[in-house]
Amino acid sequence: MQLSEQEIIRREKLTKLRELGINPYPANLYPVNHTSKQIKDDFSEGKQVTIAGRLMSVRDQGKASFAELQDSEGRIQLYFNRDVICEGEDKTLYNTVFKKLIDLGDFIGIEGELFTTKVGAKAVRVSNFTFLSKTLRPLPLPKTDEQGHVFDAFTDAELRYRMRYVDLVVNPQVKDVFVKRTKLFNAMRSFFNDKGYMEVETPILQSIPGGAAARPFITHHNSLNIPLYMRIANELYLKRLIVGGFEGVYEFSKNFRNEGMDRTHNPEFTAMEIYVAYKDYNWMMEFTENLLEHCALAVNGTTEATFGEHNVNFKAPYARVTMTDAIKQFTGFDITGKSEDEIRAAAKSMGIEVDDTMGKGKLIDEIFGEKCEGNFIQPTFITDYPKEMSPLCKEHRDNPELTERFELMVCGKEIANAYSELNDPIDQRERFEAQLALSERGDDEAGQFIDEDFLRALEYGMPPTSGLGIGMDRLIMFLTNNPSIQEVLFFPQMKPEAKPLAISDEAKAIVELLKAENNQALAQLKEKAGLSGKKWDAAMKELAKHNLTKVIVEGDNKTVELIK
């Protein structure tokens, strides 16, 4: 492992602490009795407190120093005085341990009394401090000049998502998003629980992936010697529970879909699904808008939210537009009664990329997604989807070509999906078979299996039921004004971290010379490197092999360039 100069110095300090008999990683409990927020909210001059956290800044003033401690609820100012901390002749704890061996980012415990500084700041006068954890890597702390300009901020998105533990420390505002995320889950739970619905758990590993049109992750169970699929949705299991006699069940489920990644999609995501017996999609629309109004108030204290350039209001009621009317409004094309070939031709005429694997439902979905979705900014229910788009949804009571389904659109994105659930086992089998036929045509998102056990459950009878699914990650994006799903996931999926190339010291020396001045004459570079002919040739071959440098020949001139 190659260490930076800072990392080497911190390890040396670690050794010196141990030589002084100080354990940098003590195992015993530290008796914290206050947080920074509690101190500020209930400040009392002279009160004795015990707090703990990370040391985030130090202003050394010789025999005294000011510092800042950051805990889970904010920051508090500390005042270190040598003669207070070290009452006797031995000043090692202040002069050596505090001033020379402590680093920014170290976890320390503080005992002291509260006082007000000359400038009116609330602070802790330290009487004793304890090492709780020595940090071996320096934090990427931003710096602020006298004019308030911030430098070296930790803003690189890839680094922030990959090292969320650092992001949370140096960008404390990030924590607010996840506090609001928890508030959202708590608000939704309380809304359901108050109505008597039951939270349940269903399998993540499934023998048949169902409940959605999506490509699953596949794994293998060694003992049973069978393939298993990671859950793409929990719908079919929750419906089994309705068959079993529960009148209202819900679950916050981790779902997994082996598909693309972008600003609104992560292969692992959290969905909430709820199923209530004896209800239909009209009831569920009213339930949904009241639920989201309740959640917006719980998270932000208001039904209004800002998302990018849009101001969105989650106050009920929401507009209702049929899918047929939406497509007609924004394309002029009426899908009513049209054949698959007619819809495919219409899609092509609109400049939408389609292919022969797409059935009627997928074609309509593409038209709506390309031409209509982005126009719905305020919360809007898109209702009455064509039957081909909804294999688990009850046929519309007034039009056999449609289903009783709605999706809730906000700022051009779907955040909720709901049905009057299909409970006719014969109709359900026919829908599954139609999906299987699409899969055989090459649609890898269509259902590839017929879930015989689910059909058997329906044959035992499922009462009229309405179900609702909400993408929790997307919803919190809208409530916290975050355009990227990675911002609302603690640990989003990332591409593998690039490993540093293991190259020789001679090759590294050449790279450093080219970093200082790129595109140097070959002879000049060789002279600067000071390598023997044999070592020079070996290093240059190594750099070329790893595609780090290239030699440019122009007539008699040869130059070496570092490939960035």
UniProtKB/TrEMBL annotation:
PROSITE patterns: AA_TRNA_LIGASE_II. Residues 181-492 form the Aminoacyl-transfer RNA synthetases class-II family profile domain. Binds 3 Mg(2+) ions per subunit. GO terms for molecular function: ATP binding; lysine-tRNA ligase activity; magnesium ion binding; tRNA binding. It is an enzyme of class 6 (ligase). Its cofactor is Mg(2+). Mg(2+) 2 binds at E414. InterPro entries: Aa-tRNA-synt_II (IPR004364), aa-tRNA-synth_II (IPR006195), aa-tRNA-synth_II/BPL/LPL (IPR045864), Lys-tRNA-ligase_II (IPR002313), Lys-tRNA-ligase_II_N (IPR044136), Lys-tRNA-synth_II_C (IPR018149), NA-bd_OB-fold (IPR012340), NA-bd_OB_tRNA (IPR004365). One of its GO terms (cellular component) is cytosol. It comes from the Bacteria. GO terms for biological process: lysyl-tRNA aminoacylation. The keyword GTP-binding does not apply. It catalyses: tRNA(Lys) + L-lysine + ATP = L-lysyl-tRNA(Lys) + AMP + diphosphate. The keyword Repeat does not apply. Pfam families: tRNA-synt_2 (PF00152), tRNA_anti-codon (PF01336). Coiled coil: none annotated. Mg(2+) 1 binds at E407, E414. Keywords: Aminoacyl-tRNA synthetase, ATP-binding, Cytoplasm, Ligase, Magnesium, Metal-binding, Nucleotide-binding, Protein biosynthesis. Its EC number is 6.1.1.6. Its main location: cytoplasm. It is found in: Cytoplasm. Homodimer. HAMAP family: Lys_tRNA_synth_class2 (MF_00252). Belongs to the class-II aminoacyl-tRNA synthetase family. This is Lysine--tRNA ligase. The gene is lysS.
